[in-house]
Each structure stands twice: as structure tokens, then as C-alpha cells.
From TrEMBL:
SUPFAM superfamilies: NAD(P)-linked oxidoreductase. Residues 27-326 form the NADP-dependent oxidoreductase domain. GO terms for biological process: methylglyoxal catabolic process. This is Predicted oxidoreductase. GO terms for cellular component: cytosol. InterPro entries: K_chnl_volt-dep_bsu_KCNAB-rel, NAD(P)_OxRdtase_dom_sf, NADP_OxRdtase_dom.
Length: 344
């Protein structure tokens, strides 16, 4: 039996299977974590979505908690006139969407109510992938997976995924999914040259189980674009200066050691004919367990630039050179994959 090809090309975009499923997703997916509904105005957000569509992106990722549910609304309006069957729309559930004790977590109540709210805001009858945004230590996993099974059987989601789950949690959920006969096909972790915590345990387990990674922050929240310089304040208007756009999240990377090493990557990017940001995205796509890399943007030109990383193949010598530069500042501890011990 011949192995199934895991890639296909349409125009300038390449597509990969999501895990071991039959669903194909664009190598570059568009996410609106901290832009739509908060950092940028809706007109600019729609322009970014249009740029993604024009560049061959068909996979769009959001979550009910982004911008207090507004991100789903903006994405829904931006995609309203597109052929639904030609898109893969993903969303997530876990973080608070209201003030109540049950407006969070992965209880049956919250999942069943949240999927309906997400579908209403997105203006669609179903999502292609419904994801557990974190692991819920306060709900039995069987309750969560049974609720997800009912969401799938009701036709409200085609596939189930998770985000930032440990290898042991993936294994337990996969076993329940098999018993329930629902397709658990993906994990959405942070992954970049500077954050490789999934490589030791999550990736090998996922490969074994047929789970694909949809990675976020492949450019390390913008640090791997090279725009942050050692010894200098962050550029005005950048993410590092905007509390609404993840300044706290990026702060740990803004050390002179990290930033100096990122600048040392520039000649390698030039050698490959890429920008630093394109090199960072292409790098995560070299991992065969990665199905798609999520990009975000506040301007359409950022989208058009980033999608050029699709289909790029980096040779072994270049990858080795990247490792030699980044290894001293790269986080690899698998224990850094974590979910809140208490519901937020």
C-alpha cells in the first residue's frame, strides 16, 4: 500500500492533512487572537481576512474568548460572502465568556452553550474544528469528551481538537475519543525557534496517535521578525507597547541575549531568500507533525508577506545553523506545556 501524500498545492498555497484525518488545511492559517475586535478596527480586520483569502489561505482560527467574543463576530462578518464549503473555520472553548461560575471550563453545560454562541457569532451552522482551549482539571475528562461527541453528532462540528494539552492528556483523550467514535485530530500549541517545548513529548505522542499540530506564535509574537533590537526600546505601536495586544506575553523574550541572537539569524534568512518572519514560519513547517502555522496581522501587507513561507523547504545545513544560534535561549522544558490549575 502506498503512503498517502500529506501535501497538496493550490496556486501558491500548500495544504496538509490535519493529523491523520482526511481534512486538509492550508499550511498557513489565519488567526485573530489579539487583533480582531480589539487591536484593529473592523475595516482593517476585514482587509486582512481578504488578503489571506486572496493569498490562498482557507483555514481560519478564532476562539470565543478573543476580544470578549467580538473576534468571532468580526471573523463571521468578514467571511460572510465566501463559499462555506471552501473554508475551514476553527474556534475554541474554555476561557470565561461571562461572569457566571459556569461561563468557563469544559463542563457539559458550558460546552453545549458555548458552541451555540460561537455558531451564532460566526454566522455558520457548523465549525470544522471545535477545540478545548486548555485542559480543565475541574471537570471529568469523560464528561468533556462526551459533550464534544454530542456536538459532533449534532452536526455542529466536524472534528475535535485541543490546545496546549500535555502528552499524557492527549493520550487519555484520544482513548476516550476512540471509544466515543469521534475524530480527535489536532492540538494547538505555541511553537517557534525559541519555544520548542512540544518536541520532547507532545510531538512523538501526537505522531503515534495521528494528531496534528496547528501551531500559534511561530514568529514568537513578532520577536522573530527582527524588529525588536537589543538595547533599544520597542518600536512605537508594536505589540510590546500595547497591553491589549499581548505586551505581557512578549515581555519574557525581550532580553538582549535573545534579541542579539535573532539579529544573527538575518544573514541566514537572506541566504534562503526570505525575510526573518518568513524564515520563522517556514522553520515550524519543517516539522512533519505540524499541519498548519497560524499567523495574525493588523495590516494586509503583513499577511501577504507571511504566506510566502508556504511550501518553503529549508536544507539541513540551514536548520543546523539556526539551532546553533538559538539553542542557548530556546525553551525546551516539556513541563512548560500547562493549563490553569484553577478555572480562570
Amino acid at each position: 500500500m502506498k503512503a498517502r501524500t500529506d501535501r497538496a498545492r493550490v496556486g501558491d498555497m500548500e495544504f496538509r492533512h490535519l493529523g491523520r484525518s482526511g481534512l486538509m488545511v492550508s499550511e498557513i492559517s489565519y488567526g485573530n487572537w489579539i487583533t480582531h475586535g480589539s487591536q484593529v478596527e473592523e475595516e482593517a480586520a476585514v482587509s486582512c481576512v481578504r488578503a489571506a483569502l486572496d493569498s490562498g489561505v482557507t483555514t481560519f482560527d478564532t476562539a470565543d474568548v478573543y476580544a470578549g467574543t467580538r473576534a468571532e463576530e468580526v471573523l463571521g462578518r468578514a467571511l460572510a460572502n465566501e463559499r462555506r464549503e471552501g473554508l475551514e473555520i476553527f474556534t475554541k472553548v474554555f476561557f470565561p465568556t461571562g461572569p457566571g461560575r459556569n461561563d468557563r471550563g469544559l463542563s457539559r453545560k458550558h460546552i453545549m452553550e458555548s458552541i451555540d454562541g460561537s455558531l451564532r457569532r460566526l454566522g455558520t451552522d457548523y465549525v470544522d474544528l471545535y477545540q478545548a482551549h486548555r485542559y480543565d482539571y475541574h471537570t471529568p475528562l469523560e464528561e468533556t469528551m462526551t459533550a464534544f461527541a454530542d456536538v459532533v453528532r449534532a452536526g455542529k462540528a466536524h472534528y475535535i481538537g485541543v490546545s496546549e494539552w500535555k502528552a499524557s492528556q492527549l493520550r487519555e483523550a484520544h482513548e476516550l475519543a476512540r471509544e466515543l467514535r469521534i475524530p480527535l485530530v489536532s492540538n494547538q500549541p505555541q511553537y517557534s525557534m525559541l519555544w520548542r517545548v512540544i518536541e520532547a513529548e507532545v510531538v512523538p505522542t501526537s505522531t503515534e496517535l495521528g494528531i496534528g499540530q496547528i501551531v500559534f506564535s511561530p514568529m514568537a509574537q513578532g520577536v522573530l521578525t527582527g524588529k525588536y533590537l537589543p538595547g533599544q526600546p520597542p518600536p512605537a505601536g508594536s505589540r510590546a507597547t500595547d497591553e491589549k495586544s499581548g505586551a505581557g506575553f512578549i515581555a519574557r523574550l525581550l532580553t538582549d541575549d535573545v534579541l542579539t541572537r535573532v539579529q544573527r539569524l538575518k544573514p541566514l534568512a537572506e541566504q534562503a531568500g526570505l525575510s526573518l518572519g518568513q524564515l520563522a514560519i517556514a522553520w515550524v513547517l519543517q516539522n512533519p507533525n505540524v499541519s498548519s502555522a497560524i499567523i495574525g496581522a493588523s495590516r494586509p501587507e503583513q499577511v501577504r508577506d507571511n504566506v510566502k513561507a508556504a511550501g518553503v523547504k529549508l536544507d539541513a545545513e540551514l536548520i543546523k545553523a539556526i539551532d546553533e544560534i538559538t539553542d542557548p535561549v530556546t525553551e525546551r522544558d516539556p513541563a512548560r506545556t500547562e493549563s490553569p490549575a484553577e478555572r480562570p
